[in-house]
Design a protein that fits this description.
- The chain has 260 residues and is of the alpha/beta class.
- Helices cover 46% and strands 22% of the residues.
- Strands 5-4-3-9-10 form a five-stranded mixed beta sheet, with helices on both faces.
- Helix 4 runs antiparallel to helix 6.
């Protein structure tokens, strides 16, 4: 996949081996760092730089990461939830949790199988999450019809599911995300916590779009919570901006930190 992607880029822009910036989970180990770098180099890159995903997300939102004030970013992607407090161009404290969008899809699949005796696929589970999934009760309960395989007789079957049911299905995983945010806040220096309390928490990633997640997080932390514009693309945009301004933003790169 990497070889094909790099091959297409070099062909379209008629360039040699490209310089690549890759977003990685916060807290990546040196062994994992080397593994990522080596795989990208073998795929045809000239240079490889790594940036932690919450930092990339912050840059992608247009946040001024160089300011001394504290800022909290919560990036809920497909495989991981990244929580970080950023100040003076660096990550002060961060946590990475392997509970995110994919896990929520699996929760929905398991719930419908256990409670409604219906087998559904990953695509259907994601559609349910996007259409009626919520972290807190909606003002008006929503429902949708889904199609799956009846586990009693193996035949196709249509049923209706409600937002209340899907909220219940995802509740445990959402609580884990809330707890990791609280844990990160507890480890944040008091002066930076004060800044976050005033300016709020920024949500990015596809998971940020889950209905009422911002309201639940605000209720549980007592802080304002905002969903970033183009939340789904913040990490990609931030990684791109870093590549465009590699010399100016070199200090945010993981490899640059390790060489200090």
């Amino acid at each position: 996949m990497l070889k094909n992607l790099i091959g297409k880029v070099t062909k379209i822009y008629n360039i040699g081996r490209p310089r690549v910036v890759v977003g990685v989970p916060s807290g990546i180990t040196e062994v994992e760092e080397r593994a990522v770098q080596e795989s990208i180099m073998q795929a045809g890159a000239k240079e490889v730089y790594l940036i932690e995903e919450p930092m990339a997300a912050a840059i992608g939102t247009g946040m001024d990461i160089s300011e001394p004030s504290g800022k909290m970013i919560v990036d809920i992607g497909g495989g991981t939830t990244e929580v970080a407090v950023i100040s003076l161009g660096g990550i002060v404290t961060s946590h990475s949790l392997r509970v995110a969008g994919d896990e929520l899809d699996q929760d929905i699949t398991n719930y419908i199988k256990k409670e409604l005796n219906l087998a559904i696929g990953e695509t259907t589970a994601e559609q349910i999450k996007l259409q009626i999934g919520c972290a807190m009760p909606l003002m008006t309960e929503m429902s949708m019809q889904i199609r799956g395989r009846d586990l009693n007789n193996g035949l196709p079957k249509n049923i209706n599911v409600t937002s209340v049911q899907i909220e219940e299905a995802m509740k445990e995983s959402i609580n884990k995300i809330i707890e990791i945010v609280k844990t990160t806040l507890e480890k944040t220096p008091p002066e930076l916590s004060s800044d976050i309390s005033e300016k709020g928490i920024i949500l990015t990633g596809g998971g940020a779009l889950l209905k009422n997640l911002d309201k639940l997080l605000s209720k549980e932390t007592g802080m304002p919570v905002y969903i970033a514009e183009e939340a789904l693309n913040c990490v990609v945009k931030g990684t791109g901006k870093t590549l465009e301004n590699i010399e100016k933003l070199r200090t945010v790169l993981v490899s640059a930190k390790n060489r200090k």
